[in-house]
Amino acid sequence: MAIRQGLFRTRTFINSFRQFSNTKFLEVTVNDDSGIATVTMKRPPVNSLNLELLTDFSDVLTDLKKNDAQGMILTSFSNKVFTAGLDIMEMYKPDEGRFKQFWSMLQEVWMQLYGSSFPTAAAINGHAPAGGCLLAMSCEYRVMVNKFTIGLNETQLGIAAPPWFIKAMLNTISRRDTELALTTGRLFKTDEALKIGLVDEVANDKEDALKKAEAFFDRFETIAPIARAYTKASLRGADIEDLKKNREKDLQTTLSAILQPKVQQGLEFYLAFLKNKKEESA
After folding, report:
1. Best label site of 5, 64, 123, 207, fewest CB within 10 Å?
2. Catalytic residue (choose from 26, 54, 61, 86)
3. Annotated catalytic, 131?
4. Active site residue 179
5. Catalytic residue at 268?
6. Under 8 Å CB-to-CB from 17, ≥6 apart: which residues?
7. Model confidence over 183-220: pLDDT tens digits?
8. Active-site entry in 27, 153, 158, 198
9. 155-190 per-position pLDDT tens digit
C-alpha cells in the first residue's frame, strides 16, 4: 500500500474513530487515520428531506470542507430506506416563504455535494427514490445493497425533474437511459441499476456496502488531491454554474409547477396512499 508524502496525506489503517459535527438529523463519524467521514442520515422513519435536514447537511458539508476531510460516505440509519426523497409535506399546500427556503437549501446542498473538493461515495442501504437518487448520483461512487430500488420517479407524481436533476443523471448514465428513466419515472432494482451504471457495485448488506465504499477512496492513494479536485471541477463545474445563474428561475418554475391543482391533487392522493399503507401495517 502506497503511503502519501508531501502533497499526499499519510494514512494508516487503525480503526480509530471520533464523533464530528453531529446534528439533529445527521450523525458524522470521522476515521482519524484516513480522514474519511461517514455521514448517516437519521430522520425516522424514512429520512424525508425537509428544510431542517437539508440545512444540517449543508452545515456538515461546510464543516468537512473546512476541516480538510479526505472523503465522505453517505448512508442511512435505516436498513430499508436510504432516503425516500423530498418531504412531500414541504410541497403539499406549501407556505410560499418556507418553500422558497426549502428549495434554495436543496439547491445549495446539491451544489456542495455534487461539486465537493473531497471525494464522495454513497452506501445505499435501502430504497432511494427521487431525492434519494439525486443525493446518490451527486456522489462520485455508489454501492447499493441488493433487493432495493433507485431512480428519479417524479413523473409518477405529475412533477417534472428539474434540469439539474437531469444533469446529475446524465453525468451518471447514458442519455438514452436517462430519457427512458425520466419520462417513465422508472425505479430500478439494484441489479438493473448496476447494469446501466446507476450504481457501481452491489453489496450484501450495509456493512458490506460501507466496506466497499471505503475501498473506493484507496484509488486516490497516489493521486495529488489538488489534481483530483481540479479534474472533478472541470467535469461537473458547468452544471453547477448553470444552476447558480438560474437559481431564482428554477425556484419560481418549481413553485409554479407544484401549485398546479393537478399536482396538488396528485400529492394529496399519494399522502392518502401512504396513510392507508401505514394503517394496514399497524
Report:
1. 5
2. 86
3. yes
4. no
5. no
6. 29, 30, 31, 32
7. 999 999 999 999 999 999 999 999 999 999 999 999 99
8. 153
9. 988 889 999 999 999 999 999 999 999 999 999 999
